[in-house]
Amino acid sequence: QVQLVESGGGLVQAGGSLRLSCAASGRMFSYYGMGWFRQAPGKEREFVATIGWRESRTDYADSVKGRFTISRDNAKNTVYLQMTSLKPEDTAVYYCARDRMSYRGRLPLPAATDFDSWGQGTQVTVSS
């Protein structure tokens, strides 16, 4: 079972930036799509971004398009989420996740059902 460890969360003022990292264990990292989700207090976990095992394909929630960028470094077994122009409503615990299927012929769906491995989460707090 893969282990995913997120880092990079913290407290930032509105308009600021953060870069989250998610390090994955194992040697098959490059075979799987990866995703970021977030959960705010009292709310359901929601999709943020996904990247295919082919690095050129990405997808974003409408709420973060143009502000967040997902990327991956297969040599480092790491997926990143660069967050800019942060807003108080971006405050949440951010989770990375791995696609349940390797070499998927499409991007993972923007839903938890396509992912079966999750990290422990990292807190992002945006103050106004």
Unreliable stretches: none
The helical percent reads: under 10%
Helix count equals 0
Overall pLDDT score: 95
Largest sheet: 7 strands, mixed
Cα-to-Cα separation, first versus last residue = 39 Å
How would you describe the shape?
globular
Derived from helix and strand composition plus strand pairing, the structural class reads mainly beta
What percentage of the residues does DSSP assign to strands (E)? over 45%
Radius of gyration over C-alpha positions, nearest whole angstrom: 14 Å
SSE pattern, N- to C-terminal: EEEEEEEEEEE
The strand count comes to 11
Task: Explain what the structure shows.
It is a single chain. This protein has 128 residues and is mainly beta. It has strands spanning 4-7, 10-13, 18-24, 32-39, 46-51, 58-60, 68-73, 78-83, 92-102, 115-118, 122-127. Strands 2, 4, 5, 6, 9, 10 and 11 form a 7-stranded mixed sheet that branches. The chain has a 4-stranded antiparallel sheet with strand order 1-3-8-7, with no helix packed on it. The radius of gyration is 14 Å and the shape is globular. The N and C termini lie far apart (39 Å). The mean pLDDT is 95.
